[in-house]
Design brief:
Blueprint (H helix, E strand, L loop, with lengths): L1 H16 L11 E2 H12 L2 E3 L2 H4 L3 E2 L10 H9 L4 E7 L2 E6 L7 H12 L5 H18 L14 E2 L3 E3 L2 E11 L2 E10 L6 E7 L10 H13 L2 E5 L20 H17 L5 E11 L1 H12 L5 E5 L11 H4 L12 H6 L6 E6 L11 H10 L7 E6 L8 H15 L44 H7 L4
Parallel strand pairs: 2-5, 10-11, 10-12, 12-13, 13-14, 14-15
Antiparallel strand pairs: 1-3, 4-5, 6-8, 7-8, 8-9, 9-11
Helix pairs in contact: 7-13
Length: 461
C-alpha cells in the first residue's frame, strides 16, 4: 500500500510540474531538470559537471521513479550510459557508465559460473587451451608479426652500490620502439634470475622513486630487473600522443613489447630461463596477468593492486580489445589462474577494486592451483587499511616472494629488525633514464610519429 501511495504521490507532483507533456513527446525532460527532481523528492545531493548533462534528455523521465532511490537512479541514468557513485549518506556523484566495473556480487557470480565448466586438472587444461589462442587473436597478435632485424639501442652503464643501470630501446615493429632500463647486479652470476617490471598509470611511470627502488633492490638481491614503458607513456610519447594510450591498440603494443623484451633478455643475456618473473602494479598488474597467461617462459607472477573478478581494467590498455570474450567469455581472475601451477603472489588492498580479494577470488585461485597439488604456491597479501599504490608494504612481499622462489639472498638487504634497507638505492633524475636523449634528439630516423601509421601495421587483423 505504501509503495503504491508513494509512486502515486511522485507522479502527481511530476504531472503537476509538466502538464504539457504527453506520450506524444515521450515525456521528455532535460537531464539537468530530472536530477533536480531527484534531489528534491529523495532529499539527496548529486554532484556533476555541466558538460556531463549539457544537451542530454531523458524519455519517459517521470515514469522511471520508484520508492527506492538507488533503483530510481539506475532507471534514470542507465539509458544515458551514466551512473552515480555513492560518496556518503544521501550524497552521490554522477559518472559515465564504466563497462569495466561491475558490482562485487556480479563479478563473484560470473566467476562461479566460469568455474562450473571444470572440476579437475584435465578439464581446466582443456578450458585454458581454449582461451589462450583466442587471447592472441583478440590482441591482433595471431600470428605474431615479424621482429625487425635491428639491434638494441643501449646507453652506457651507470654504476651504483651493488647494481648497475643501462637504458635500452628495442624496435618491436618497423619504426615502433619500446624503451626501458635494465638493472643488473654489480657482480652478476653466469645465470641470473629475471624480473620484468611493467608499471601502472601513476605519474612518471618507471622514473618514479618507488619504481627505481624496486628494480634496484631486486638487482642488489641478485636478479636482473627490466623496467619498461607503457605505450604512449614515458619515452613512447616521443612517437605517440598521450591520448593514444587510451586507444585499443595500446594493449597490443604493450603486449608485443613485453614479448620482444623477453626475446631479447633470454637470448645471450646470462638469464636463467627457469627463473623468469613479471611483477607490475595497477595497469601494470593487469599486463602482468595477461603476459603470464600468454607466455609460458614466465615462471612466476606478481600482480599488485590490480586483480579482481568484478573489475576488468579501467583503461583500454587493459580492456580495449575483446580479450574478455575469449573462450566464450572470461574475466581477469580466470586469466590469472592460467598461471597455475607457476608460483603467483596477488597483492591487494582495502581501498580499491581489490578490496574483497580474500573473500572469494583467492579461494578460486587456490582451487585451480589445487588441481596441480600446488595450492601453497599461490599466495595473497592483503592490506585492508591501505590504498592503491606500490609503497614499501607492497614491495616487501615482492622481495620476499621472489627471493624465496628464485633462491636469492635477501637477508643481506635487511636491517636488524628484519625490514629491508632501501636507503642505499640511488634515485636518478628522469633524464638519466632516457634512451633517446634529454630532448628525444636520438630518436631513430625511421621512428613512426603517427598513430594512423601504427594502425596500418595491423590492418586486416
Amino acid at each position: 500500500m505504501f509503495r503504491t501511495l508513494f509512486i502515486a504521490a511522485i507522479l502527481n507532483v511530476l504531472f503537476m510540474q509538466s502538464r504539457a507533456q504527453s506520450s506524444d513527446d515521450q515525456y521528455r525532460k532535460p537531464l539537468k531538470e530530472v536530477l533536480g527532481l531527484l534531489e528534491q523528492h529523495y532529499g539527496i545531493t548529486i554532484k556533476y559537471q555541466e558538460e556531463q548533462v549539457a544537451g542530454k534528455y531523458l524519455n519517459y523521465a517521470r515514469w522511471r521513479f520508484r520508492p527506492d532511490v538507488d533503483e530510481t537512479l539506475k532507471n534514470v541514468l542507465a539509458p544515458l550510459d551514466l551512473k552515480v557513485n555513492k560518496e556518503g549518506e544521501k550524497k552521490y556523484k554522477l559518472k559515465e557508465y564504466e563497462y569495466y566495473r561491475w558490482e562485487v556480487k556480479d563479478g563473484w557470480d560470473y566467476l562461479d559460473q566460469l568455474a562450473a565448466q571444470y572440476h579437475d586438472r584435465a578439464s581446466w587444461e582443456k578450458r585454458k587451451a581454449a582461451i589462450r589462442p583466442e587471447l592472441f587473436t583478440a590482441l591482433k597478435l595471431s600470428p605474431l608479426p615479424a621482429s625487425p632485424d635491428s639491434k638494441a639501442i643501449l646507453s652506457k652503464k651507470r654504476e651504483f652500490t651493488g647494481y648497475t643501470v643501462q637504458n635500452f630501446a628495442l624496435e618491436i615493429l618497423p619504426g615502433v620502439y619500446v624503451n626501458g632500463s635494465i638493472y643488473r647486479p654489480s657482480k652478476p652470476k653466469k645465470s641470473s634470475a629475471l624480473v620484468l617490471s611493467p608499471d601502472g598509470h601513476w605519474a612518471d611511470h618507471r622514473y618514479r622513486k618507488d619504481a627505481q627502488v624496486r628494480c634496484a633492490m631486486l638487482a642488489k638481491m641478485g636478479a636482473v630487473s627490466v623496467s619498461y614503458d607503457l605505450f604512449a607513456w614515458g619515452e613512447s610519447l616521443l612517437q605517440f600522443k598521450s591520448e593514444d594510450h587510451r586507444k585499443s591498440l595500446s594493449m597490443t603494443v604493450q603486449t608485443l613489447g613485453a614479448i620482444r623484451i623477453l626475446d631479447y633478455m633470454l637470448a645471450g643475456q646470462g638469464i636463467d630461463n627457469q627463473r623468469v618473473a613479471i611483477c607490475g602494479g595497477s595497469g601494470g598488474g593487469s599486463h602482468t596477468v595477461l603476459m603470464t597467461a600468454l607466455d609460458d617462459r614466465i615462471t612466476l607472477s606478481i600482480p599488485v593492486v590490480s586483480l579482481s573478478s568484478y573489475f576488468y581494467g579501467g583503461c583500454p590498455c587493459e580492456s580495449g580489445l575483446p580479450i574478455h570474450s575469449s573462450g566464450g567469455g572470461t574475466n581477469n581472475v580466470e586469466i590469472a589462474a592460467m598461471a597455475a601451477p607457476r608460483p603467483q603472489l596477488v597483492i591487494s588492498d582495502g581501498k580499491d577494486w581489490t578490496a574483497h580479494m580474500p573473500e572469494h577470488d583467492f579461494a578460486y585461485l587456490q582451487t585451480i592451483y589445487g588441481y596441480y597439488g600446488k595450492s601453497a604456491d599461490v599466495a595473497n597479501v592483503h592490506l585492508p587499511e591501505e590504498g592503491h599504490d606500490f609503497g614499501y608494504s607492497k614491495r616487501k612481499p615482492v622481495y620476499d616472494f621472489v627471493a624465496r622462489y628464485f633462491q636469492l639472498n635477501a637477508d643481506v638487504l635487511k636491517k636488524k629488525d628484519g625490514e629491508y634497507d632501501e636507503s642505499t638505492v640511488t634515485i636518478e633524475k628522469k633524464e638519466a633514464l632516457y634512451s633517446f636523449g634529454d630532448k628525444g634528439e636520438k630518436l631513430p630516423a625511421n621512428a613512426l610519429i603517427d598513430y594512423e601509421e601504427l594502425e596500418k601495421l595491423f590492418k586486416g587483423k
